[in-house]
Amino acid sequence: MRLFIAIEPPEEIKEYLSSIKLPDFKGTAVKPSNIHLTLKFLGEVDEDKKNEIKKRLNKIKLEPINCTTSNIGYFPSEDYIKVIWIGLEPKGKLTNLQQEIDNQLKDLFPKDKNFHPHLTLARVKFIEDKEKFKETIKTLKTEKHEFTITEFKLLKSTLTKEGPIYEEI
After folding, report:
1. What is the residue-wise DSSP string for 42-99?
2. Which of 118, 119, 122, 133 is labelled catalytic?
3. Active-site residue 116, yes or no?
4. Does the pLDDT at position 114 exceed 90?
C-alpha cells in the first residue's frame, strides 16, 4: 500500500486555498479535500510494516503548532515548474516535527533531505507564457490564514484516473 504522513488543514483553509485565482497553466488543481502538508512520503509499504509505523508515530508528543499560510511559490525551479504551492509558517516548528518523524522511522525509511512546509495547490503540465506566469505569481496577493495543528495522520493513497483517494490508517 502507498503511504504518507500528513497534516490536514481545517476545511475553511482548504476552501480558501481552492478559491485562489492562479495564473493560466495546463495541469490540475488539487481537490480541496486532498489539500494537505506532507511530512513524510513513505511510498509502497508492506502491510506487515503498518503496525510498526503506527507504534513509532504514537511515541511522538505533538505540542499544538499555530500555523499561518504565507507566500505562493512553485517547485522545482523557475525553468521547470511542476507544482504550485502556498508556504506555511513557522517553518522551524514544522521542520522539527518532520525531523522527529524521520528519526522515529530512520531504520525503516531514508531521511528526507529537503523538507519545505507547504500545501500543494496544483500540479503543472505546461505553461504557455512562463515569464507572465512567474510575474503573476510574484504579484499575487493572498490572505494570511491561521490554524492550529494538533495532529498528524498516517494516510493511504490510492491512485485513480480521477486523482488520488486518501484514507486514514
Report:
1. EEE--GGGHHHHHHHHTT-----EEEEEEEEEEEE-SSSEEEEEEEEE-HHHHHHHHH
2. 118
3. no
4. no
